[in-house]
Design goal:
- With about 500 residues, this protein is α/β, with parallel strands linked by helices.
- It folds into four domains: about 1-170, NAD(P)-binding Rossmann-like Domain (Rossmann fold); about 175-260, N-(1-d-carboxylethyl)-l-norvaline Dehydrogenase, domain 2, CATH 1.10.1040.10; about 285-410, NAD(P)-binding Rossmann-like Domain (Rossmann fold, 3-Layer(aba) Sandwich); about 425-500, N-(1-d-carboxylethyl)-l-norvaline Dehydrogenase, domain 2, CATH 1.10.1040.10.
- The protein is built from 20 helices and 14 strands.
- It has helices spanning about 1-10, 25-40, 50-55, 80-95, 110-115, 150-160, 175-190, 200-210, 215-220, 225-240, 245-255, 295-305, 330-345, 360-365, 395-405, 425-440, 445-455, 460-470, 470-485, 495-500, and strands at about 15-20, 60, 70-75, 100-105, 125-130, 135-140, 165-170, 285-290, 310, 320-325, 350, 370-375, 385-390, 410-415.
- Helix 6 links the parallel strand 6 (about 135-140) and strand 7 (about 165-170).
């Protein structure tokens, strides 16, 4: 990370002094600089002459005293508060009185670092994202002690380097990591509870939520030890249960299974590719739809695209392979599905679309609960179907439901009958966290969205997602999750409730 930040500064035309703990570390840093800029030359993004100019702007040393004339010093040592405090004590001693000292911490409180110096008003956080030469976001963190000019100066410098600065207050995890790691930890807890498998959770979040990778693939890439450090730092400050590290994550770290860098984490990286299941083969199913409204229309459109027959009158349901209840409220859906259960042939799969964890209640009302599963399309535009089996679902019925959905051209994942299935159970708590940040005035909507799109590679930011999905839908799912778990962190934030009640977007 230190080499990456030095490269960014040197690319911006600035003279840089890089300090390492010893000569071996210094040579490793030099190697990082040379290989990173060398790759840019090979790809035609940098000329050989420009590479030499960049490298020529970076002076490497093991002597802290060589930082004496610097205007800005950025610390990028490992995420240990005791180590950072020792480094800042030395910087405080050797640097000019007017120099700004910055920490590249991703999760530790900047105030705790600043308080150990004689110049806390000149200490800021400047969180570059990895790899620094590529990632556009930089979080600039001000403490209650920081002089405004120091923050403004660093933000302007960051902007001049071609990055996007987001200026925020000093909260553990800041914006991006506080939002990201609550979601990642939720995925680990979901796996540990047996709600769904690792592969189904990863597939659901990629296919159904449009994320660049699933949570377990991402945690393995970040490093599970780093994930644990960030979660522990945020939890120490917030005491929010969503950031209390999953015991499964802690167990993997204790066992030394840290992800890609050790060859095994949630996945094994042994060079053996996992076989992907073949798409279900067979004729297109005949689908019955009971209920009217936007969801019923979306399911009908999906069936039309798949080239399958759709039947929506009671007299035609007898010939269906799959009957989907798509009513706008649970009471109407229960009545419609119960009537459909009397009309269909034995072996027909009955599907409930409720996302509030009440599939079992709908199933019992039909008189044939063994034939009932939950079916959720988290985004009608995305080719994902979530199939939820209840404790009463016959063992072969969930498999048959998955096969039928697969014949409609959908990617299928399976889970238990719980509120939100997989995608919504992970997505809406994350969006709720973002709405809480906005409601508290910690960051504005543009900054929150920039943090997740530019810092984490999300296709859209959480505030934009809330406006696209609708605050009312978010409140419905969050209320169901809260009722099921009684976790205060899952109660919809007041700002979200207010916008849902008013029928207004957040932006």
């Amino acid at each position: 990370m230190g080499a990456g930040i030095a490269e960014v500064l040197a690319r911006g035309g600035l003279a840089v002094v890089g300090v390492e703990v010893d000569r071996d570390a210094l040579e490793r840093g030099r190697g990082h600089l040379e290989s990173s800029t060398g790759r840019a030359v090979k790809r035609g993004r940098l000329t050989a002459e420009a590479q030499q100019e960049i490298l020529g702007r970076v002076a490497l040393t093991t002597d802290f005293a060589d930082l004496g004339d610097c205007d800005l010093v950025i610390e990028a040592v490992p995420e240990r508060l005791d180590l950072k405090r020792r480094v800042f004590a030395e910087l405080d001693r050797v640097c000019r009185a007017d120099a700004v000292l910055a920490t590249n911490t991703s999760s530790l409180p900047v105030t705790d670092i600043a308080a150990g110096t004689s110049r806390p008003s000149q200490v800021v956080g400047v969180h570059f994202f990895n790899p620094a030469p590529v990632m556009k976001l930089v979080e600039v963190i001000a403490t209650v002690l920081t002089e405004p000019d120091a923050v403004t100066g660093v933000a302007e410098l960051v902007k001049g380097l071609g990055k996007t600065p987001v200026t925020i207050g000093d909260r553990a995890g800041f914006v991006a990591n506080r939002l990201l790691f609550g979601y990642l930890n939720g995925a680990a807890a979901m796996l540990e509870s047996g709600h769904a498998t690792r592969d189904d959770i990863d597939t659901a979040m990629k296919t159904g939520a449009g994320l660049p990778m699933g949570p377990f693939t991402l945690m393995d890439l970040i490093g599970l030890d780093t994930c644990l450090q960030v979660l522990d730092a945020i939890y120490a400050e917030s005491r929010d249960r969503r950031h209390a590290a999953s015991p499964l994550l802690r167990e993997l770290v204790t066992a030394g299974l840290l992800g890609r860098k050790t060859g095994r984490g949630f996945y094994a990286y042994d060079g053996v590719e996992q076989a992907k299941p073949d798409a279900p083969d067979g004729p297109r199913p005949v689908v019955g739809i009971v209920g009217v409204g936007p969801l019923a229309d979306a399911i009908a459109a999906l069936c039309d695209r798949a080239g399958t027959q759709v039947r929506d009158s009671a007299a035609e349901l007898a010939g269906c392979d799959l009957v989907v209840e798509a009513a706008e409220d649970a009471e109407a859906g229960r009545a419609l599905l119960s009537a459909a259960a009397q009309a269909v042939k034995p072996g027909t799969v009955l599907a409930v679309t409720s996302v509030d964890g009440s599939v079992i209640r709908q199933a019992m009302a039909t008189g044939r609960p063994a034939d009932v599963v939950g079916l959720h399309l988290p985004d009608p535009a995305a080719p994902l179907a979530e199939i939820a089996a209840t404790v009463a679902t016959a063992p072969d019925v969930a498999g048959r439901a998955a096969e039928l959905a697969g014949r409609l051209g959908l990617t299928v994942v399976r889970c238990r009958d719980r509120a939100g299935f997989i995608v919504d159970a992970l997505r809406f708590p994350y969006l709720n966290d973002a709405a809480a940040m906005l409601g508290a005035g910690y960051a504005d909507a543009d900054s929150i969205d920039a943090a997740m799109t530019l810092g984490c590679g999300y296709p859209t930011g959480p505030i934009a997602d809330l406006d696209r999905l609708g605050p009312d839908r978010a409140v419905t799912v969050l209320n169901a999750l809260h009722a099921e778990t009684r976790d205060p962190a899952l109660a919809p934030t007041p700002l979200l409730v207010e916008h849902a009640t008013a029928g207004r977007p957040l932006r």
